[in-house]
Amino acid sequence: MLKTRIIPVLQLKNNTAIKTVNFCNERMVGDAITHVKIFSNRLSDEMVILDLDGTQKRKTNKNYIKRLSKECNMPLMVGGGIRTLNDAHNLFQSGADKIIINTEFYYNKQFIPTLVKIYGSQSIIFSLDVKSNGKDDYLTYSNGGRKKQTLSYLDTVDCVSNLGVGEILINNIQRDGKMQGYDLKLISNISKITDKPLIALGGCSCKQDFKLAFEKGASGFAAGSVFHWIGESILTIKRYLMENQVPVRLLPND
After folding, report:
1. What is the mean pLDDT of the segment spanning 110-122?
2. Predicted TM-score of the model (pTM)
3. Which among 45, 51, 129, 183 is annotated as catalytic?
4. What's phi and psi for 212, nearest 5 deg?
5. Model confidence band, residue 252 (pLDDT cutoffs 50, 70, 90)
């Protein structure tokens, strides 16, 4: 069985680590390089860096990503402002192992297949950002959660799966930073229509949330607040998951 992954998330703004609530209400976390060093020494399996400046300014911050990547001893996923092949190239050259695509997919359906052809499926992650519509369903969003899209969330998942993405990052905007648990219904619904690995994001509050997300179909668990504000230990989380028959890596070579 494939091992599940614990994936800390850092959001960047003005080269500083922050944490949002519902994609806004920013709160400073501290020096980003320091946090990368800390997570690199605490058995994290991978790391996500979301460059909010890149999202808002439509420009990747390749120089700062390069600085961060030098301190990161685990696979690094980077998202924010990736609109062109040159953007992707710059991030891979700066140390990204995987890149996260959201907005450009909705405007250029050939973007993902082109990236997959050049860099391989395993390097391309799609970020599905949604909000509940209050009627037992979800609406898809792009542009950092600011623009509602017409394509349904299930059709979006089906489309990006067929286009060849390696994984799908699932994020309910309404749970971002709220520490009320992952959206288990959303994870379950998506796991039923795709065989792509799913990374849960948004709302994690404790180690039990990782187990619940695994039971609904997630194989990666991305989180920020539970590490920044609760101080949950990655080793403690992994031991808990292992005790509950969730496969994890306790050592880098496991």
Report:
1. 98
2. 0.95
3. 129
4. -65, -40
5. low
